[in-house]
Specification:
Layout lengths: L3 E7 L7 H14 L3 E7 L14 H14 L7 E5 L5 H10 L4 H5 L2 H10 L5 H16 L4 E3 L5 H18 L11 E3 L34 H10 L16 H14 L3 H8 L4 H28 L3 H28 L6
Helix pairs in contact: 2-11, 3-6, 3-12, 6-7, 8-11, 9-10, 9-11
Bound molecules: tryptophanyl-5'AMP.
Length: about 325
């Protein structure tokens, strides 16, 4: 039987943090053998907010290398760079023209990011979810594994696909496949180390708010030492008054592979002075193999280029077929 298709991606804005890992990449790795996977580095999305042209290419390599270092296996997955497959931009334009403006104005992430940008909000930031829809729909993805924060964008993708099918397709043959989100229960929303009520995020100016996958052991130790806690003795999950406690226990469970019940039992009597070193050691040990593999990949000259080159070829073949189907449905004169 043909395996179902998965597509997902991460923006190359600096480093990846453990929210990206537990919310997305770890799930890609765990489920990869069940699917035909496409994982892209979404560099076109990275310029929807002001970006640094000096670091964009290097950041793109970093993310691709991290995919591999986290365990993405090329036997099951194609890794490629979004801007290398021009069909993404082209389909985004076609979808733009059938997407009502007010669907985009409703997007929570747009509203949050727009507030931070003040006067400088670009059209690209508003249009970001349409490009994301193009990414997904081009590959006829059945499943899209993401963190909780992307759920609304997935719903929009489904609405855009349904609208295009409805307007230009017929009952027997849908033009675009409607994808489903794949959001894991654990790790779908990792919170900031400095504020347990806000999401861990690459765009938070405070680096102390997140643990990056490539942070040194010393830095991880420092971040956990300084992270926000509370004066209560005994550590418990799910207390609305103690969001930091819930987040740190969750992280301990994710890093150690222990269940919620196991963590709850182990930590119920602990104070922060005992828990923080435990979390630190567990985090450092869990990230070590990823960091070592990452260094190896970066040292192997030419390897990443060859991965991204063959990824582009495979991605292009699939994407161009969908693009052609959409253009035909919209009535375009084929190239002469
Ligand atoms: P990005 O680069 O912001 O995040 C990449 C992935 O990490 C997840 N994530 C989190 N999960 C748990 N806790 C957190 N604190 C946390 N922060 C981020 C995100 O949900 C995401 O899965 N728009 C997307 C990239 C994208 C994409 C796509 C994803 C573009 N095209 C097509 C899937 C399919 C984004 O900006 O992710």
């Amino acid at each position: 039987m043909k395996r179902q298709r998965v597509l997902s991606g991460v923006q190359p804005t600096g480093n990846l943090h453990i929210g990206n890992y537990f919310g997305a990449i770890r799930n890609w790795v765990e489920n990869q053998s069940n699917y035909d996977n496409f994982f892209c580095v979404v560099d076109l999305h990275a310029i929807t907010v002001p970006h640094n042209p000096q670091t964009l290419a290097e950041d793109t390599y970093t993310i691709a290398a991290l995919y591999l270092a986290c365990g993405i296996d090329l036997e099951y997955a194609t890794i490629f760079v979004q801007s290398h497959v021009s069909a993404h931009s082209e389909l985004a334009w076609l979808l733009n023209c059938i997407t009502p403006l007010n669907w985009l104005e409703r997007m929570i992430q747009f509203k949050e990011k727009a507030v931070k940008q003040g006067e400088n909000v670009s059209v690209g930031l508003l249009d970001y979810p349409v490009l994301m829809a193009a990414d997904i729909l081009l590959y006829e993805a059945d499943k899209v594994p993401v963190g909780e924060d992307q759920k609304q964008h997935l719903e929009l993708t489904r609405d855009i696909a349904a609208r295009l099918n409805d307007k230009f397709g017929n009952k027997d043959e849908q033009i675009l496949k409607i994808p489903a989100p794949l959001i894991s229960k654990e790790g779908a929303r990792v919170m900031s180390l400095t504020d347990g009520t806000s999401k861990m995020s690459k765009s938070d100016p405070a680096d102390l708010s997140r643990i990056n996958l490539l942070d040194s052991p010393e830095l991880i130790q420092k971040k956990i030492k300084r992270c926000k806690t509370d004066p209560v003795k005994g550590l418990t999950f799910d207390d609305p008054e103690r969001p930091e406690c819930n987040n740190l226990l969750t992280l301990y469970g994710l890093f150690s592979g222990k269940s919620k019940a196991e963590v709850a039992a182990e930590c119920e009597e602990m104070g922060w002075g005992q828990f923080k070193p435990l979390l630190t050691d567990t985090a450092i040990a869990a990230l070590k193999p990823i960091q070592e593999k990452y260094q190896q990949i970066r040292e192997e000259k030419g390897y990443l280029d060859s991965v991204l080159h063959s990824g582009k070829e495979k991605a292009q073949t699939v994407a161009n077929q969908t693009l052609l189907r959409v253009k035909n449905a919209l009535g375009y004169l084929p190239p002469l």
